[in-house]
User: Fold these one by one.
Assistant:
Number 1:
Amino acid sequence: MIYNKVLSANDVGIEIVMDIYQTSFPIDERREIDALKYMIDNEDAFTLEAIYDNDTIVGLLSWWNLGKWRYIEHFAVDEQCRGRGIGQKVLMEFLARNMLPVVLEVEPPVDEFCRRRISFYRTIGFRLHDTYSYTQPPYCSGRNSVELCLMSYNAPALYSLDEVAGLLHRNVYGVK
């Protein structure tokens, strides 16, 4: 049985989630662990969920409530558990309980691994905005910005990607 549990920074299992986080995302695409733990307990718009398969933590989902949008910041299933449909089940459940539009960032489709990730999101119903120029700001001093693509789900017919990017830059990355 697959289920999610919202975490606090002191929960049992937080170190397993942090290990999956660090091994699943390049350093420029993630927060410092101390900053992430601080956000878990102190940022009302931010949620970190552990993904469980029965009683074993197998992944994580971090997301933001940005008013009219939900933003999936990080989503990963442990490498040893991939290919079992866990990610699709978790994402479909997330979309079902969050009826608002959802946006996420992905690497551009420059290699097979990135194309497979994009294809995964497309099969669930996300739309790739690969003609829109988007840069993820650095998470902290000493980190680099990253050229990424935005994907959206259940987005209104008329919306501005500039507005969505601005919302992410202000609320998630703290860029004024």
Note: The first strand starts at residue 2 and ends at 6.
Number 2:
Amino acid sequence: LAMQYAEILIETGQAQEARQILGEQLRRRPGNAQVLKLAARAAGASGALGEAYQYQAEYYYLSGRVEAAVRQLEVALKDAKLDYYQSARLSARLKGYKEELADIKAASR
């Protein structure tokens, strides 16, 4: 129900309120790919681009698309106006994803 309500809020220009609802959903159900995907939309629509990139990267990662997650974080670090803490958090996540991607590629050889 919260997800449907958040979608309606995004569609009616109330993305900030949707972000709050989805943030609570993520605290209750961390790692839920569908909540992350919708949270990325809400963050983007409300202008929180760093957060949008981060949620989208997490969605890709949980969907098994590690390479897409890496690209998403690389774009975020280049394009988004991030504060120091966002940049550090995204950089650390990127490093972890790159290490995992290297392990995946090494294992497939």
Note: DSSP finds six helices and no strands in the chain.
Number 3:
Amino acid sequence: LSVRPVTGTALRVLIAEDDADLQRLYTVTIGTWGMPLSVQVVGNGFDGLMQIGLNPPDVLITDLMMTGLDGFEMIRRLRANSALNDMDIIAISALSRDDVDERGGLPADVTLYGKPVPFQELRGYLQAKLAQRQRSSSADSHS
């Protein structure tokens, strides 16, 4: 599942979600936003790590509870690699913050949202990330 970029300056977004209905919901909803996004969807943390190894996204949106390699372990492995520190990570989970903490918590730089998926917040987050990129690329072109 993928949403093709509108321009070459597209923000690369990887979504790790094992629920097929949610995968479709992400793809359809994000596709209606008309933003320059290149979206890929994988079904588990292992495939997420493989995809990130091939082409690191600008933003990773991950479920925490997935079969096989879960979001907690995937995030731990990603944050152990300093080359990936620029990648934003958003975790979306039905777990309470206390449950997340009981499972070892998340790094301080990981944004945690509850389920159902808060698409308005995600949209705002991605819009801000795109605006930040446009500001830095226009600053680069003027220097």
Note: The chain has a mean pLDDT of 90.
Number 4:
Amino acid sequence: YHGAKVYADDDKRTYLGTIEDEFASDSVFNDFSSYGSEFSSTSIWNEFGTFGGQFSSHSPFNRFTSTPPLIVKNKKVIGRLTVSRFIAGAVDPNWLKSFFKY
């Protein structure tokens, strides 16, 4: 998944960052980036934002959504960032974080 990009499954395909280590400037695991900060509106880690939390339809942490973020590499969807076990190609963001956060 290294280097893959994360996009919201919304009308705009909102860019939500890349899957890289916590030191990359646009990594979803960089606590200080627009895509990794728990306070950023474009972060999956913002539990009150459009793309985070357990109730947003575009959040990877909503177990019941059918529109979690897309994981895209080489212009192809290779999975979905979600805690749901009912989505094909599901990749748990917490599991993924263990590989990219030191």
Note: The chain has a mean pLDDT of 96.
